[in-house]
Amino acid sequence: MKIESAVVVGAGLIGTSIALALREHGVEVALADSDPAALRLACELGAGTPLGDGPGTHPADVAVVAAPPGAVPAVLREVQDRGLAQVYTDVASVKHGVLVEAVRAGCDLATFVPGHPMGGSERNGPGAARADLFLGRSWALCPTDKTDPGAAATVAELARLCGAAPLTLDARAHDRAVALVSHAPHVAASAVAARLLEGDGNALALAGQGVRDVTRIAGGDPSMWAEILRHNTGPVADVLEAVAADLATAAQALRAEEGGTPVRGLLDRGRRGHERIPGKHGAQRTPDYAVLPVVIPDEPNALGRLFAAVGDAGVNVEDIRIDHSPGLPVGVAQLSVLPDSLPDLARALADRGWSVHP
Ligand SMILES: NC(=O)c1ccc[n+]([C@@H]2O[C@H](COP(=O)([O-])OP(=O)(O)OC[C@H]3O[C@@H](n4cnc5c(N)ncnc54)[C@H](O)[C@@H]3O)[C@@H](O)[C@H]2O)c1
Ligand SMILES: O=C(O)C(=O)C[C@]1(C(=O)O)C=C[C@@H](O)C=C1
Description:
13 strands; binds prephenic acid; six-stranded parallel β-sheet; Prephenate dehydrogenase; Rossmann fold; binds nicotinamide-adenine-dinucleotide; Alpha-Beta Plaits; 358 residues; aromatic amino acid biosynthesis; 45% helix; alpha/beta; 14 helices
């Protein structure tokens, strides 16, 4: 079915990212959020227009409930009661527990297709949203035996419009799978990051990319993650016990100064496990931007001057990251631009005296 209109309830990171992706395909999107500031920002970003209060006059083709897992059943029941759409889905990171609570809340299961897009970020809120968040990612769909096949087809189409690959599986199987590939890794990252509280200033000054990579997801919202884990206790505990056993064995071996095995064995298994992450879905999701590193002095308005120079060059910056080490008088602005614009931008900035490193 062609999706022409959608309702998104929960205009945070995921809801706004879905809305932005749908807008790129000309889908009409109505947005709602219990937080008026989030709703305002999502609308300002071009993700849609505010949903009215009354019942839907024309039910949208699909409604997406993008609220935290514990809020999904009540919100779903409310939007179904208001008849806001023909088909409903959610994006909660856990499926079985949320489904059980949705049944308890009296939701209509024929029109509800539980879903979970496997793209995200450690940041939350609409300010972190991006239309390409789900590009090349899997999008789990967990229809039940009560789900109308037409509804499942519509939500699969929603996933495809967002650039993702729909993958249908049973809710419990989904929860076991994400315990392994998402939820236990999150707790493990938090455990490593929590150790950093013990580090002194020198230790933290030495932090390089390795610890940043391993702990990035630990920067996620603790309230949201507590809710996710509360809904997937057994499967996550199973994985954490296995990880803890590996870590305990490694620590014992190191204490006994027999570093060769089994620590070597764990490193070998780790490398093989890492290689199993599918290249396509694990690949960098950003489209083909070229990155131009520009050295910026650590002084007032350096970024203002850089942006003015970029503006003069007539180039659109798609994304920017600033790397800056404490104590250094300069930092590096990484400007992401369309590849064709890179040579012109590099030349224009160099002509204006900027130190560029294409
Ligand atoms: N963060 C991720 O990486 C990620 C990835 C995939 C799926 N998810 C799932 O997506 C959902 C949303 O997560 P997020 O990261 O976008 O969080 P978020 O905090 O960025 O957004 C959630 C939004 O829901 C709103 N909200 C809360 N209760 C509401 C209610 N009763 N009615 C209307 N709006 C309500 C909040 O105000 C907030 O704006 C969660 O269920 C999460 O499990 C998250
Ligand atoms: O932060 C990220 O990069 C994510 O993709 C987040 C991530 C994940 O573990 O893969 C986290 C939770 C979600 O339910 C889905 C995606």
